[in-house]
């Protein structure tokens, strides 16, 4: 972690990386996982959960807790599919022990020191900062993989987020075009030749 909180406002860019693509076994596993997500295949997810799987920042722990938290007994209404699919689109990084982290920014050494602060976010492709919270607002900037911060007066809900970036610039961006650094991340581990989903929970 190289940057202090102030640097989070300097519009540094952290595009996703995919170092996991070097491992053919993980590529094959990820392809199967994406197919399971598309088909809402809860049976497959159950099959890749270890007994100590984690979710919801440790509140619901273990395989049974994971299944309960993500409502896998009712796959049609589970939030897991959309959230895990979104995370998988944002790269993958391996740590020294061989664990695979998704998104890759979960393990990025260039992430801000205060990345676990709820106010630090990443501008996703297509993020347009406007002077007012409206599609008719004057365009202030177009961002792509830039580190931004959520303004203190932002209520945390609604279609538009009030953000700050580039030192002293601010504006509004659609909330679905940003991703908080604390958003859910997935951790995968290889056990006896099989990739398992060790957990999916907010980054702390």
Question: In the residues, how many domains can be counted?
Answer: 2
- The total beta strand count reads 13
Amino- and carboxy-terminal Cα gap: 14 Å
Task: Count the DSSP helices.
Answer: 4
Q: CATH class of the largest domain, anyone?
A: Alpha Beta
Description of the structure:
The chain has helices at 24-38, 42-47, 62-69, 80-88, and strands at residues 54-55, 60-61, 93-94, 100-102, 120-123, 127-130, 139-143, 147-150, 160-165, 169-174, 178-180, 184-191, 194-202. It is α+β, with helices and mostly antiparallel strands. It has four helices and 13 strands. It has two domains: 20-110 and 182-202, Roll (Nuclear Transport Factor 2, Chain: A); 120-180, SH3 Domains (SH3 type barrels), CATH 2.30.30. It is globular, with a radius of gyration of 18 Å. The chain starts with 23 loop residues before the first helix and ends with a strand. The longest helix has 15 residues, at 24-38.
């Amino acid at each position: 972690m190289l940057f202090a909180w102030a640097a989070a406002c300097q519009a540094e860019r952290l595009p996703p990386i995919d170092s996991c693509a070097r491992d053919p076994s993980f590529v094959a596993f990820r392809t199967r996982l994406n197919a399971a997500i598309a088909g809402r295949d809860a049976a497959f997810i159950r099959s890749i959960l270890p007994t100590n799987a984690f979710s919801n920042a440790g509140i619901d722990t273990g395989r049974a807790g994971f299944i309960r938290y993500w409502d896998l007994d009712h796959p049609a209404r589970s939030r897991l599919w959309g959230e895990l699919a979104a995370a998988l689109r944002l790269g993958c990084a391996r740590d020294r022990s061989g664990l695979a982290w998704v998104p890759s920014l979960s393990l990025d050494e260039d992430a801000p020191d205060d990345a676990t602060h709820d106010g630090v976010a990443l501008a996703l492709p297509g993020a347009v900062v406007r002077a007012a919270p409206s599609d008719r607002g004057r365009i202030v900037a177009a961002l792509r993989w830039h580190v931004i911060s959520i303004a203190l007066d932002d209520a945390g809900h609604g279609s538009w987020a009030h953000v700050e970036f580039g030192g002293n610039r601010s504006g509004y961006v659609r909330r679905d075009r940003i991703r908080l650094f604390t958003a859910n991340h997935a951790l995968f581990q290889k056990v006896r030749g099989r990739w398992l989903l060790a957990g999916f929970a907010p980054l702390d």
